[in-house]
Design brief:
Length: 406
């Protein structure tokens, strides 16, 4: 039985007040809070166990290396990957997608080749492809969503043409909460000989993921949204794709031998992990994923589905609020604007006075804001420790904002 009251006890920050009110943290889509187990692991990592990894032969280096490398297997288990050598450790989704852009796409794409994207991608899954557009003449093909915020997988499939080399698609929108049927897209793209990169930044924290069943060529996650430290993350890359890639960053650890006139690289995944990594951050990520697996991602998803349904019911009762993204298949993420002159930043500020933390702005999703015809929204994004009572507090704070703005 999932007991959210007990879960909340694992997160020390949730007991604090903000502006004299109990904290209601609804900015999980930007970054999630950390359980005590992760905080303890990071503190211990620096206070008692710190050393550089891989190169040392002393006790602390061996201990740090063992813990750090152990996270690769934890990530593989969490994502349903049998072969942990397909997991490349990094600082998060942005680095992961750039690794694919520079290491896989850039060497094999030329002017006129195409990348298919949806209009609701995060900038991390847009800007690296613009680099290829600017520098190599690669064409970006955009697929729109419908009025409910749903993305028809067939529309993505229909956008794939003879010059398409890659589909780069989110699994779950960070703005609308829309869940994308990436499995259908992947299967159809592969039939056409096209690779698929999936941005799993939001999906991996809200639902169970099994990459061996999903079949994506690339799947990126970021640690700070998964209740782990910032500066941690990973990207899954299929073995045959790893073999096609050239290194993105050069330096220590990713080499076998270096001479004045020759360099030979380490085997993947080390080939794509140059330099001293975020050792303690990555160890903390491993602890966070173990914490999630102990809770059970099915249980987390069920709890958040209940929150989603309750929040949708309460928000629907505010006839002066416009919620963007009303499709049924979505996570507990709600973006909204007020039917008045109130700016999203002003609404967020008023909510903050009530202790309610939400995000305001374009959410690193410029093309989606253009599509929606807004400059920004407020976003309330729920996590595994949020409650229905906190939904009520959000509604009360929104009603106060409405009263103030008329």
């Amino acid at each position: 039985m999932y007991d959210v009251t007990e879960v909340r006890k694992d997160f020390p920050i949730l007991s604090r007040e903000v502006n004299g009110k109990p904290l209601v943290y609804l900015d999980n889509g930007a970054s999630a809070q950390k359980p005590q187990a992760v905080i303890d692991a990071v503190t211990r990592g620096y206070a008692e166990e710190y050393a550089n990894v891989h190169r040392g032969l002393h006790y602390l280096s061996n201990l740090a290396t063992e813990k750090y490398e152990g996270v690769r297997g934890i990530i593989a288990r969490f994502l349903g990957v049998a072969d942990e050598e397909q997991i490349v450790l990094n600082s998060g989704t942005t680095e992961g997608i750039n690794t694919v852009a520079y290491g896989w796409a850039m060497p094999r794409m030329e002017a006129g080749d195409e990348i298919v994207l949806s209009v609701m991608e995060h900038h991390a899954n847009i800007v690296p492809w613009h680099f290829l557009r600017e520098r190599q003449g690669v064409q970006l093909k955009w697929v729109d969503i419908d009025s409910r915020g749903a993305l028809d997988p067939q529309a993505v499939i229909d956008a794939i043409g003879p010059k398409t080399k890659l589909v780069a698609i989110t699994h779950l929108s960070n703005v609308l909460g829309t869940v994308v049927d990436v499995k259908t897209i992947i299967d159809a793209a592969h039939e056409k000989g096209v690779a698929v990169l999936v941005d799993g930044s939001q999906s991996a924290v809200h639902m169970p993921v099994n990459l061996d069943a999903l079949g994506a060529d690339f799947y990126a996650i970021t640690g700070h949204k998964l209740y782990g430290p910032s500066g941690s993350g990973a990207i899954f890359i299929k073995k045959d794709r790893l073999a096609e890639m050239r290194p993105f960053i050069g330096g220590g650890d990713m080499i076998r031998e270096v001479h004045k006139d020759e360099v030979t690289y380490a085997d993947p995944p080390m080939k794509f992990e140059a330099g001293t990594p975020g050792i303690v951050q990555t160890i903390g990520l491993g602890v966070a994923l173990e914490y999630l697996m102990d809770l059970g991602m099915e249980n987390v998803a069920a709890h958040e589905a209940r929150l989603r349904d309750y929040a949708r019911e309460r928000l629907d009762g505010l006839n002066w609020l416009s919620v963007q993204g009303t499709t049924e298949d979505k996570a507990a993420i709600f973006s909204f604007t007020m039917n008045s002159a109130a700016h999203a930043h002003d609404i967020s500020t008023i909510l903050d006075k009530k202790g309610v933390a939400v995000r305001a702005g374009h959410h690193c999703a410029g093309p989606l804001m253009d599509f929606l015809g807004v400059t920004g929204t407020c976003r309330a994004s729920f996590g595994l420790y949020n409650t229905e009572a906190e939904v009520d507090t959000l509604i009360d704070a929104l009603e106060l904002a409405h009263d103030l703005f008329g």
